[in-house]
Amino acid sequence: MVKIAVAGGSGQVGQEVIDALAAAKKHEIVILSRNKAVTGDSASGVTWLAVNYDDKSQLIEALRGIHTVLSFTQVMDYTPQENLIDAAIAAGVKRFAPSQWGSASTIGMPWWAGKDKIKEYLEKVNENGKVLEYSLFQPGLFLDYLATPYKTAKYLEPLNTMIDFQNRRAIVVDGYDAIMTYTTVKDLAAVVARAADLDGEWPVVGGIRGNRVPVSQILKIGEKVRETTGRAFTVDKVKLGDLERGILTASWTLEASHPSVTGDQVEEMLKTVLIGTLLSSAKGAWDVSDEFNQLLPDFKFTQIEEFLAQVWEGKP
C-alpha cells in the first residue's frame, strides 16, 4: 500500500480514477483541491486536502509521504502544475503523472499547448539524471463520447465530436482516413489503478490503446449499429489546407463544450476545437501507442462495436 495524491480531483476524469483506486482498496488516497470538497470525505481510504497551487511550501507539506501524484489540473494554466512538480521533487515523491489523459501529441490543438510545456518541464528536471519518475498517460479519445447525448460513465459528461452517432453524421478530412484510438473512461481508470500497483518503472510515454480504428471503420460501425433508423451517415469532407487556415466549411459544428469554457468564448472555442481535432487526426495525433497494454497483457478493454451496439440499441 502506498499514498497517492490526486491533484484536480474534483474534475470528471479525476473522479473516475479516484473511484477506481478507492474500489481497489489497496492505497491511501489524498485528493488535492483548491476548495476542500464536502463529498467523498467518508469514503474508505480517501481524504480531501485544500491546497494553494501558488504556494510551493504548502504543496511540499501536502506531498510529504506521498508515493505517486496523479494530476488532472487544467492545462491552459501550466504554472500550478510546474509548482506541483517542484513540490513533488522536494517532498520525495517517486512517481508523477501529469495532466495528459488524451492524444499522443498536441499538433493542431493550441488549447493543449500547456501539455507540451509540462512535458518539456519534466524532461528538463531529469536532464542531468532522473529525479522524478513520470508517465504521460495517453488513452486517445474517450469512447464514451460516441454515445453522446447518452451518459455512459458516472462522472464523464457527454461531449460532441467530429463523429455524431445521434444525428448520423460526421466530418472527415478529405484524402485522410485518420487512425483513432478510443478507450472508455472506465477502462482508463482501471488501467491507472492497475498501474499504481506495478513494481517496475512506469514508461515515459504511457499509451493506453483500447481500440485503434480508422475513421472509415468507425463510420461502418455507425451504419451497422444505427441501421434501425433507416438513415445513412451524412459525411462532410473538409480540406486540410482550409483547416490550416482556420476555415471550416462543414455544414455543422459542435454543440457542447467543456465546462471550463463559458460565455462569449463558447462559439469560437467550439470551432477551434473542431478544426483542431480534425487537423490533429489527419496528422496522427490520436494514434496512440500501447505501452500499458504491454505491461498489463491480461487486461480486457471494452471493444468499440460491442460498446456502441449496446448504447444505441433501440435508440431513435
UniProtKB/TrEMBL annotation:
GO terms for molecular function: oxidoreductase activity. The keyword DNA damage does not apply. Gene3D superfamilies: NAD(P)-binding Rossmann-like Domain (3.40.50.720). The keyword Glycoprotein does not apply. Keywords: NADP, Oxidoreductase. Transmembrane segments: none annotated. Pfam families: NmrA (PF05368). Residues 3-308 form the NmrA-like domain. Belongs to the NmrA-type oxidoreductase family. Isoflavone reductase subfamily. This is NAD(P)-binding protein. It comes from Hyaloscypha bicolor E.
